[in-house]
Amino acid sequence: MPSQTEAVRRLGIDYPIIQGPFGGGISTVGLVSAVSNRGGLGSFGAHIVAPEEIGVLRKEIGAATSAPFALNLWVSDHDPGGLHLSQEEFDRYFPIFEPYFEELGLEKPEPPELYHYRFEEQAEALLEARPPVFSFVFGVPSAKVLAECKQRGIVTAGAATTIAEAEALEAAGVDLIVATGFEAGGHRPSFLAPAEESLFGTLALTQIIERRVKVAVIAAGGIVDGRGVHAALTLGAQAAQIGTAFLACDESGTTDAHRALLHGDAILETALSRSFTGRLARVIPNRLYDELLPRAAELPPFPVQGWFVSRIKAAAVAANRSDLITLYSGQIAPNLKHRNVPDLMDALLQDLS
Amino acid sequence: MPSQTEAVRRLGIDYPIIQGPFGGGISTVGLVSAVSNRGGLGSFGAHIVAPEEIGVLRKEIGAATSAPFALNLWVSDHDPGGLHLSQEEFDRYFPIFEPYFEELGLEKPEPPELYHYRFEEQAEALLEARPPVFSFVFGVPSAKVLAECKQRGIVTAGAATTIAEAEALEAAGVDLIVATGFEAGGHRPSFLAPAEESLFGTLALTQIIERRVKVAVIAAGGIVDGRGVHAALTLGAQAAQIGTAFLACDESGTTDAHRALLHGDAILETALSRSFTGRLARVIPNRLYDELLPRAAELPPFPVQGWFVSRIKAAAVAANRSDLITLYSGQIAPNLKHRNVPDLMDALLQDLS
């Protein structure tokens, strides 16, 4: 199995293994550096990091590893109606969330100035910070940003959920395309058509994109162990992106309750929902999922929905509760085996050798 | 790559390649025998064949090939409300279809005695006909039927779309499990939970089922060439079931218009819909799909919906039209290459050698 692919060389890593970036505060410097120090590519989901903090983050990761790593941003930072709310709109949405705020002992919040940082400012800060790899989801950065990456030697990787998205990324000159199959946990990073209409299985998507574009393809979704990595390479991918298996490691920033569910004996079923942030994501259904499902039509757009839920989550996380947090998970969770990065990387590398 | 798997030996075939069974009149003796004669397993979708015709069909296939082949049935033959209709109910549903009947010059039909043959009678006839392999979807046959298969030396293969379905098939003593991923064309053969809640990608489903059950697993969905077969075997499958690539061959019973679309240069997008038979199936959207989509709530249950649409289809097929037929297709269609079974089998076997 030729695991020393062009993409591996380009990324400057030892093995064709990329840790999927996690948003929502569950990426950690410890996780990213643990993966990168073992020869994979660690990734930090920085879309919730303020522009002025991105340089600091980059330095923290750089202090923990001398190996390449990725910072990940969300190109599209809001959906229609999700950029600004009037106080009246804010007050109209709040009753949906009020019972949870009350249950968790939280006051009604003040509307923030921004519900999400602006991508352009984050990208500016990222260019300044010059991480080895800039990976992104939900769109294609401007030609100016991509040209700056090229000039500064930052490798770029964009996520595609359809053929058209892969072709758009290739046309823009992005270095690597992450073919993100339906099985993957977390957000479906679709940007040309609604996510609900952009659902390809990883097996099909990897092969189709690999045949349609010249850019190197990375397969994401449904990969948890060495045989999954082998299968991805067999299908024409040059590396495999692994999310849930790293999320379930002690080094990730999620809660013990979430980790216990991921490793649990109960047969896991995941579902796609817009209830958590306003954008479609794969999660383990819990009480918050069940209760918000019938109210889908009333929920505010991204990122407003995510802003409200993140307040609920913060209090629930503090209480190590799993009923009111977002339980991201890929479909492959039933096959999880390892509880920390060294064990997981050892197993993956043993299979690859 | 160990392509001489236990499942291949059990089936008595030469290569780990199974042609997916097609319902709706698009299976042909020529297709099945062409695949079996080349060392794969041809499969005939016999769920639309009358019990008294199943023995005849079995003899026709047996005359065309001395190699093993499968007859396929649908275990569950109706959904609630789909077994019998009163004349009043029939008349209430007809206006949905009336414009198409008029456009195609068809009279209003008389209600049939049965909208679908009864599975128990078909199974009885199949046992009598004794095909080498009995494959089935949409459920688990009774213990009596399965015991008869064992006694008569008929190998059994059942389709699973979830972990629970695979476990039910294993518990019943079925010989082989076809892990049918989300990418696959045609019907989602779910039987324990709604098909919409039973959507796993092939990459994830194959690995999960393989780890949960002891029975040999066959991967289906998203496989079109030798690298797909290799990937399936890498993931732990003992054979790969290939549907759309055989459907697109001249030997299948579909229309030239459908074949042209499958091979077309236009980027194919498929979608899941209940509009064609009342059960969820993956198709290429066309006019019938677009027009029935907003009327989903008014459509009759399976198999009544399929009965009405099959009348429309028959007239549309006669006119080689693609706007009013069911354009089954898997997600992998953009990667189709071959136009007949010898070319397709040659390419697959070259990759496997």
TrEMBL record, chains A, B:
It catalyses: 3 propionate 3-nitronate + 3 O2 + H2O = 3 3-oxopropanoate + 2 nitrate + nitrite + H2O2 + 3 H(+). Keywords: Detoxification, Flavoprotein, FMN, Monooxygenase, Oxidoreductase. Belongs to the nitronate monooxygenase family. NMO class I subfamily. It comes from the Bacteria. This is Propionate 3-nitronate monooxygenase. It holds the Pfam family NMO. It comes from Denitrobaculum tricleocarpae. GO terms for biological process: response to toxic substance.
